[in-house]
Amino acid sequence: HCLIHAKEKPFQCSDCGKTFAQRSNLEHHRRLHTGEKPFSCADCGKSFTQRYNLECHRATHTGEKPYSCGICGKSFASSSNLSRHCLIHTGEKPYSCGECGKSFTVSSHLKSHGLIHTGEKPYSCSDCDCGKCFVYSTSLIYHQRLHTGEKPYSCGECGKSFIHGSGLRRHHRVHTGEKPYSCGECGKSFTEKHYLITHRNIHAGEKPFYCGDCGKSFAHSAALRRHRRIHTGEKPYSCGDCNKNFRYSSDLAKHLR
Question: What is the annotated signal peptide range for this record (predicted)?
Fold first, then answer.
């Protein structure tokens, strides 16, 4: 324990060189390299590197969220998630990067951010022939699901599954109709933040997406992709009855009428 106060980190990972103040933290970290997941869920068999992660996972089966925010009432499966959430209300970001000044609500986010400046990518995929590496351990975990096909986040409404929890949260808005991102200019609302950012280009008159073939510019990247089909000849929409292909989904819809 005294090593924490002394800021000494004598326990080093032989794979990536990362150091730790406590041996137990090194042992937890080593599982990222070995792939060991000793803590298994009795309900679904899913395994985890740490017991705490298993306990949080169990809440997906029980639906239990015992930790509630005193300000907005939102509930969480773990106390740590509640603590992070509370910082949204206070606006507090106590962890600042010495390189660029960017601030974070959680110390682990600052540590991960620091790798951007060093260029270090300590997490390697053992399945990739190209030896793809990542800055964040979570990025490696998500990437590995591309190999395994694992999609652990399932929608209770329609059963659709996702690699990321964030993907499931966005998908839920299809069922709820929630559009939390509103334009201050016209009041139009969107399900995702990046749609709002792109929409704002209309009001600003900005058209940052340029066609390399003809120089025409667009406010949306999606509009540029559709336009590019004129040059490439791509017709991705096919009629199931006559096999005729169309450049745009709207053209296929007209054809089907």
Answer: none
3-class secondary-structure state, position 67? strand
Other CB atoms closer than 10 Å to residue 40's CB: what's the count?
12
Residue 127 in any domain: the answer is yes
| 85 in a structural domain | no
Within a domain: 66: no
In a 3-state reduction of DSSP, which class is residue 1?
A: coil
Q: How many residues does the chain have?
A: 257
End-to-end CA distance of the chain: 73
88 is a domain residue: no
Q: 7-22: per-residue pLDDT in tens?
A: 678 888 888 888 888 8
Note whether 103 and 94 are within 8 A (CB). Answer: yes
Question: CA-to-CA distance for 94 and 112, rounded, in angstroms?
Answer: 15
Q: Which residues contact 231 (CB under 8 A, 6 or more apart)?
A: 211, 213, 214
Closest CA to 126 of 98, 147, 99, 95: 147
How crowded is residue 174: how many other Cβ atoms within 10 Å of its Cβ? 13
Considering 144, 175, 206, which residue would you say is the last residue of a domain?
A: 175
Q: What is the pLDDT of residues 120-130, one digit of tens each?
A: 888 888 876 76
195, amino acid identity: Y
Q: Which domain holds residue 235?
A: 181-256
Give the number of other CB atoms < 10 A from CB of residue 71: 11
For residue 98, what are the CA distances in angstroms to 20, 47, 67, 104, 144? 21, 37, 33, 12, 32
Among 175, 192, 221, identify where a domain stops.
175
Which amino acid makes up residue 170?
R
Question: Is the CB of residue 126 less than 8 Å from the CB of residue 132?
Answer: no
Number of domains in the chain: 2
Please indicate, yes or no, whether the overall pTM of this predicted structure exceeds 0.90: no
